Amino acid sequence: MSVELSPTNSLNKLKQIESSKVFQGAVIAIIILSALTIGAKTYDLPPLAEHALTVLDNAITLFFMVEILFRFAACPTKKRFLADGWNLFDTLVVIGSLIPLDNSEAVLLGRLLRVFRVLRLVSVVPELRFLINSLLKAIPRMGYIALLMFIIFYIYAAIGSMFFASVDEVLWGDVAISMLTLFRVATFEDWTDVMYATMEQYPLSWVFYLTFIFLTAFVFLNMMIGAILEVMGEEQNAEAAQKAHDERDQIVQQLQAVQRKLDELTEKLER
Rounded to two decimals, what is the model's pTM? Predict the structure, then answer.
């Protein structure tokens, strides 16, 4: 007696395979192999090794194409597959990898898109995808902090250009150069040399540097970190709520299935 699988059962089976650890592990392994292949091509290799890497690269491209088609087939709503930003990114990278490298006009684009295949590791690993999503959602909040940082940079750069241009015009000649110098100070790149040079003419100039470092390296940096952590907390709460909602829906479906079976059994007993 043969049992035919309904479209729903087939879709559930594909979804189980796609979400299985074996399938995800295979995809991650191929992405890592692709990264190693790209890195190996930057070295001077014998012709035999280059030919082997070319064959391996074609095989990896074919695997990614089959994998993206499999994910598309496993998606419950095909029209919304590309609505997901990660699916769209993966699809564009896979399509771009189909550009032949023997075409001299498209060789640079083809190689660049093959490099971006390494980023597919982010879309495959949920933890990395969570971090990137949190970072992208934190950008609007970080933008206001960055704007405030720019204002502080500009004020200190104007002050530095007014007072320290006579000390070192290369570092403090105008506002733009002064902002670059302050960026060097904020990153602690030999900032003491800049400070000691101005202290020879302005002994109290250390106040200028210490207040600037306190604002940029401590206050604003912690504000940036706080904004990212706040968004990550919100994302974790939203993910936990969605997971709980999905579990409730699954329990309801199971109870409904049990109820249907009980109803069928009751009808048979009544007959």
Answer: 0.61
